[in-house]
Specification:
Blueprint (H helix, E strand, L loop, with lengths): L3 E5 L3 H13 L3 E5 L2 H11 L3 E5 L7 H9 L9 E5 L4 H10 L3 E4 L4 H29 L4 H20 L6 H10 L5 H8 L3 H15 L4 H10 L5
Parallel strand pairs: 1-2, 1-3, 3-4, 4-5
């Protein structure tokens, strides 16, 4: 399953632009209009990361982060604060509330996506080490624990960056690519414009770290991304 990101902002335009970009990047995205609504979403959906504005009605971003951090299960949940406020004291308040990253507006969506990938990878490593330590406290042999922790971390990262990171539409485009279809031909079958198809192809190249379509197809077949 794709990793879930909660986007919290009272500005509809920001919510839509961020959520659309992240969905195209392979994440499952849920949204909230303010901090109060976001708290409910956190309890219901247990997101893997939160991206939130600071100035919002009902409950601001600072209070949202503090409330989230009060729950032990969410102590390590990565949080990115977005805001037009850039004063040093305001950034300090953000970090004191428990955020992991402070990103000033306006920001580039590509930069936000890079920060999210970094925080999620770090979060997975920390969770894996926690499970490793927990097993150690239960008296499991050292050799077994090392193998289990390594396999668990490798599987999580591989799954996140390969199978789980692909959206349904990207999977469709990738499948058609293996048949050697052009953008126009793929667009005709998927009812998309050639330009939109090219965006999905570019996203696939980025996610697989391949430089052209031939490499992408070989990578997909090698890693079982297509049938």
């Amino acid at each position: 399953m794709p990793l879930t990101i909660l986007v919290v902002d009272d500005d509809l335009g920001t919510r839509l632009s961020v959520s659309d970009y992240l969905e195209l990047s392979g994440y499952s995205v849920i949204t909230a209009n303010d901090g109060q609504e976001a708290l409910v979403m956190v309890d219901e959906h247990h997101p893997d990361l939160i991206v939130t504005d600071i100035v919002m009605p009902q409950m601001n971003g600072y209070e949202l982060v503090r409330r989230v951090r009060q729950q032990p299960v969410f102590r390590l949940l990565p949080v990115i604060l977005l805001t037009a406020r850039t004063k040093t004291q305001e950034r300090i308040l953000g970090y004191q509330s428990g955020c992991d990253l402070f990103l000033p507006k306006p920001f580039e969506l590509e930069e936000l996506a890079a920060a999210i990938r970094n925080l999620l990878e770090r979060s997975q490593i920390i969770q894996s080490e926690y499970r490793f330590s927990h097993k150690e406290s239960l008296g499991i042999s050292a050799s077994t624990k090392v193998v289990d922790a390594y396999n668990s971390l490798s599987t999580q990262i591989q799954k996140s960056h390969l199978h789980s990171s692909l959206t349904h539409r990207e999977q469709e485009v990738l499948e058609l690519l293996t048949h050697g279809l052009s953008n126009a031909e793929m667009g005709h079958q998927l009812h998309l414009s050639p330009r939109t198809v090219e965006k999905y192809v570019s996203s696939l190249l980025r996610k697989t770290s391949t430089s052209n379509r031939a490499e992408l197809v070989r990578f997909a077949i090698k890693h079982g991304l297509v049938e």
